[in-house]
Design a protein that fits this description.
Belongs to the PTH family. The chain has 193 residues and is an alpha/beta fold. The protein has helices at residues 26-38, 72-81, 115-124, 145-148, 155-178, 180-192; strands at residues 6-11, 47-54, 57-64, 89-95, 103-107, 130-135. The longest helix is centred in the C-terminal third of the chain and has 24 residues, at 155-178.
């Protein structure tokens, strides 16, 4: 392990209280859980950041305070400023293609229909970074996607949220400490139970 090995974990979401607790802010919720777990304090205005040490590694958490669709520029700026290679970037986003409670971690691949992920792809000029996709499910018939993702989680989903956030935080820690395959195992093992 290199001295002062740095990692960037960027949660995607929309700023302001209006969007707090909405499906599109699943990335913020996981980042918040990591900060809470490690006693990291948030700082900053245009991009909130917090950091903590994890077994000799420095983990920088970030929550861009721009529209989620413009997340790429602040993420790219943080990578440059902190000299973090793209291989040590993990972006956390909501995903309509997985039911609530499911989460998937992979490196590479296209952004699908997620405009925040598309913004990160464009700003970095590569898809060769890891993404943790937190399932929020599909909207009910007759509800537009754009309305569904900025709506709050249901009461039943909120009751299950602590377990989901803890599992995602466990996967992020495993990714930093033991690599992508071990982090995927954390999520898949939990899915099997």
């Amino acid at each position: 392990m290199a001295v002062d090995e740095r990692w960037l974990v960027a949660g995607l979401g929309n700023p302001t209280r209006w969007y707090a607790g909405t499906r599109h802010n699943a990335g913020f919720l996981v980042a918040d859980r990591l900060a809470e777990r490690h006693g990291a304090r948030w700082r900053g205005v245009t991009t909130r950041t917090a950091s903590f040490a994890l077994d000799g590694r420095t983990v920088l958490l970030a929550e861009p305070q721009w529209s989620i669709n413009l997340s790429g520029r602040p993420v790219a700026a943080l990578l440059r400023r902190h000299q973090v290679p793209v291989e040590r970037l993990l972006v956390i986003q909501d995903d309509l293609d997985f039911p609530f409670g499911a989460a998937r971690l992979k490196r590479g691949g296209g952004p699908g229909g997620h405009n925040g992920a598309r913004s990160v792809h464009t700003a970095l000029g590569t898809a060769d970074y890891a993404r943790l996709r937190v399932g929020v499910g599909r909207p009910p018939k007759g509800v537009r996607v754009s309305d569904f993702v900025v709506d709050r989680f249901s009461e039943q989903e909120r009751q299950r949220m602590p377990e989901l956030l803890d599992r995602c935080a466990d996967a992020v820690e495993a990714f930093v400490l033991r690599g992508l395959n071990r982090a995927q195992d954390v999520l898949h093992t939990a899915d099997a139970h």
